[in-house]
Amino acid sequence: MEHQAKLQYDASLLREALFGFWWRAITGRLLLALVVCIASFAYFWANGDRSWIVGAFGALLLFSVGMIVAVYFVHSANMNRKLKDMGTPEAIFTASETSFSVVSGAGSSTIPWSSITDVWKLERCWLLLFSKAQFITVPLADVPEEMRAFILQRISAAGGKVDG
Q1: Where are the transmembrane segments (predicted)?
Q2: Which of 14, 50, 106, 128 could form a disulfide with 85 if both were Cys (CB 3.0 to 4.6 A apart)?
Q3: SS3 for 134?
Q4: Which of these, 108, 101, 96, lies nearest to 154 by C-alpha position?
Q5: Interatomic CA distance for residues 11 and 17, integer angstroms
Q6: Please, what is the average pLDDT of the chain?
């Protein structure tokens, strides 16, 4: 069985996808580590400690915040470049039993379902993750319910995790 949908992309959808990815990537252990670092820095600073430990916490804090901001802007630039490379902001998404294909003005790819490690469900789109830093955005407005269920079933059957 094969399903096909014509996906339409726009800047607001991609901003939602980017923010959803960024937020989920920084929450959890990274956010907890950042809070511990901030609390430690504030504790030492408030108690008048100006030793190398305070400097180390301060440097770690600056580096961490810089990395969090950089992740957002790197992915933003990458998304904008890919959108521009597409020409017309649309793609044909074809889902079969063993793989899915994406064809756009930027090129085409056929990818086995086993390459998808996670599906992150957002309000208007899904993020199909290949790794912690690579994903494809699937706008839901263009994907019929039957095709959505098929995609999730194929990803789950191949060992991918589906949130929600």
Answers
A1: 21-46, 52-74
A2: 106
A3: coil
A4: 96
A5: 10
A6: 90
What gap in Å lies between CA 62 and CA 144, rounded to an integer?
45
Structure tokens at 5: 């949908």
If you ran DSSP here, which 8-state letter would residue 116 be given? -
Which tokens belong to 86? 């597409």
User: 92-141, pLDDT tens digit by residue?
Assistant: 999 999 999 999 888 899 999 999 999 999 999 999 999 888 899 999 99
56 pLDDT exceeds 90?
A: no
The sheet carrying 99-104 orders its strands as 3-8, 90-95, 99-104, 107-112
pLDDT exceeds 70 at position 164 = no
Give, in degrees to the nearest 5, the angle at Cα 130 between 105 and 4. Answer: 45
* Structure tokens given for 52: 């190398």
Residues 48-74 as b/e (b if ≥16 CB within 10 A, e otherwise) read eeeeeebeebeeebeebeeeeeebbee
Residue 5 is predicted with a pLDDT of 95
Residue linked to tokens 């096909």: 4
Bridging pattern class, strands 107-112 and 135-139: unpaired
Are 126 and 42 spatial neighbours (Cβ–Cβ below 8 Å)?
no
